[in-house]
Amino acid sequence: MSTKNWIIFAAVCVVLFGGLIVWSSRDNIDVSKVNTDKIQPATKNSGSIADHVFGNKNSKVVLFEYGDFQCPGCGSTHPTIKAVSEKYEKQLAFVFRNFPLTTIHPNARAASAATEAAGLNGKYWEMHNMIYENQDSWSSASTEDRTNLFSQYAVNIGIDANTFEKTLTSKSSQINRKIDFDRALGNKIGVSGTPTMYLNGKKLEPKQYDNDQALEKTLLKAFKENGITIPEDADKKDS
Description:
Elements: H1 3-22, E1 52-55, E2 62-67, H2 72-87, E3 93-98, H3 108-119, H4 124-133, H5 135-138, H6 143-156, H7 161-170, H8 172-188, E4 196-199, E5 202-203, H9 212-225, H10 232-236
Parallel strand pairs: 2-3
Antiparallel strand pairs: 1-3, 2-4, 4-5
Helix pairs in contact: 1-3, 1-6, 1-7, 3-4, 3-6, 3-8
């Protein structure tokens, strides 16, 4: 893409991301009948409401994170979640739900929007990881600089720049609805800070997931309780 086109693209994205942030969380999303302990599947009328699941979506052990991409604590926890969920990819279902704390993290919702847009292009977890692993680069960035970075991340993970732009434009209401739906689920169960973790419906204490060994111990106990056998090669992986 030429320099001129990049400038035009960046300008358009600034407007789009700005609109996504201004869009306030919708209190009229009714989640009263939604079981927050269950993975939300795609339905005919759900749009992009369905949960993003890493690992075994049919597992009896499901780890939910209510996270904010700009939250330092979430950023510090990310390497542990990534490492352990990858190690037990066949035994665990990991679900990330957006809970941007926009009053203290002004770039958080835009990061969620960028990740959801990537997801609509089949690259959700790639963008999820990219944004967390580059948190220091965009957290304090201006709207324009942040937008340029997110756009470059999209290109880096294999999404055409024009395609990414079109997704943000044509799917903006769908993206916002997904973010607001996730927040509504968090609000329903009293989430007030991030990261907040739930394992099979039980809220975890930070000491249960604040490092690789702690999270692994927590998961192994849950696997055992649910009759999930861990192959010896998986148990020894990365040890």
